[in-house]
Amino acid sequence: MAELIIVFREVLEATLIVGILYTFLKQTNQDESLAKLWQGVLVALAASIVGSFLFQQFAGGFKGQAGKLFEGIVMIVAACVLGTVIVWMAKNKNIAEDLKGKAEKALSSKKVGLGIFLLAFVSVFREGIETILFLYGVMMKQGGLSITLSLVGAVMGIGMGYLIFVQGKKVPLKTFFNVSSILLIFVAAGMFAYGIHELESAGIIPNYGRIWDINPPKLADGSYPLMHDKGYVGSLLK
Question: Which residue spans traverse the membrane (predicted)?
């Protein structure tokens, strides 16, 4: 489920960025710059795919204790970056205006096409890198990723962007980002905790065991209650 939320939100953010830039260029009669916008988006997507492959190859080179150390560091970094993104999104309410300001600056420069290309590339590539980092953290924590849920999240993100910019529908984005931020806080906390666990396994920090265990006991049939960290709900939130 975590991968669905992450991909949905990151793809939606990228879609909103592209939609805002596209709308601004159309409103300012800069149709000749639209090609550069789409080129920047496509190159950013390609770079994200290549970056994902290279990151997997790099991460796969660590084995044993070094592997646990690497995973622990990456998990903690991913948790901190995810938390930073949540706080940044909450504080910055004028993202659309900031993008328009950067687009205006690009249009006023001598190299308009290059400016629009770089603006689109950097904006979308940043979302791609965040997605790679966050999904790697989820994969390490869960022991794998659901491709289906990831694809569903991507389709949902693109679909919501389509409703907003093409169909002109009013979507409660503020509510969505608030709810998803709360869910992602749990995801970030789980990543951070797993990162600490990996550092303990690597012998970097001492392991004191569970200092405070609030897990409910197993049920009579031997199954775990919903809120147990091995139960359905607890496993999603831990």
Answer: 6-25, 37-58, 70-91, 112-139, 145-165, 177-196
Q: Which structural domain range is residue 52 located in?
A: 2-206+221-237
Angstrom distance (rounded) from CA 194 to CA 206: 14
Q: Average pLDDT over the chain, rounded to whole?
A: 83
Q: What is the pTM of this model?
A: 0.76
The H or E element that residue 6 is part of is helix 2-27
How far, in Å, CA of 194 to CA of 191, rounded? 5
How many CA within 13 A on the CB side of residue 96? 9
74 in a structural domain: yes
E runs forming strands in the chain: none
Which residues have CB under 8 Å from 196's CB, separation 6+?
A: 72, 76, 205
Q: What's the rounded Cα separation, in Å, for the pair 70 and 195?
A: 9
Percentages helix, strand, coil for the chain, rounded to the nearest 5? 75, 0, 25
For residue 176, give every residue at least 6 positions away whose Cβ sits within 8 Å of its Cβ, in sequence order, or none: 12
The predicted-structure confidence for 150-199, as pLDDT tens digits, reads as follows: 899 899 988 888 887 776 667 677 777 788 888 888 888 888 888 888 88
Q: Quick check: is 213 in a domain?
A: no
Structure tokens at 9: 């939100």
Report pLDDT digits (tens) over 4-43: 888 888 898 888 888 888 888 888 888 788 889 999 999 9
Q: How many domains does the chain fold into?
A: 1
| 134 in Cβ contact with 78 (< 8 Å) | yes
Among 66-80, 86-100, 117-131, name the one with the lowest average pLDDT: 86-100
Whole-number Cα distances in Å, 71 to 11, 24, 122, 190, 209: 25, 42, 27, 14, 20
The answer to the question of residue 83 being in a domain is yes
